[in-house]
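thought: fold this chain, then report.
action: predict
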Amino acid sequence: MREILGRRLQRLRNRLKTLRSAPGQSGDQALLDAALTCATDWQWPVLPGVGRSGADSNRCACPDPDCVVPGAHPFDPGLLAATTDPRMVSWWWTNRPTAPVLLATGGFAPCAVSLPANAAARAVVRLDAQGMRLGPIVATPTRWALLVAPYSLERLGELLYAKDHVPSALRFHGEGGYLLLPPSPASGGGQVRWERDPADAGGLWLPEVEAVVHALVEASSGASGGGSRLAY
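observation:
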């Protein structure tokens, strides 16, 4: 089965390469490859982000002139369209070759916990020193996201309710959410990258959300200034 799928993917890539070599065709092969890897090799549902305006690369292509995450969110198609179908993924990025790659989090897909980049870097160093096993980490210039095993909103609510405090800098990307994946352009400039890619993180293994949140709360309590907030 894997050999058949591999041959199909190679045919798709060869066809797309031919299309891009034709006059007037251009695009970013890396984005297509990343989207196909997520969808087919890892079975993570993906969809293209809205991207930037053709007339103004600093503005989002969505109708909101004050969009706070320019280019880095779903619009058309919507989040519910996320898929692992290589034919759909290839069609999307053939027509929109520079579109960011979005992971639809939750369900059977990974979820994530994110925090500001400086605080995250310090926390990861501390967790590594403690011997905690972490999964893949997605980094933008402003925030890092630690991927975790899928969790429900009910489970997250119970987890947070049981804590005396949770760092206010933490954000949760769970069921019904999304996460920008490498090598997409970041919403505030720069590029999304793997701080710890799946190969370095032991494949597609993901820690449980309870372990990650507990470790980050502990790290925040010992951070400079203490309190309920990670120092950053």
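thought: worth noting. The chain is about 35% helix and 15% strand.
final: tokens above.
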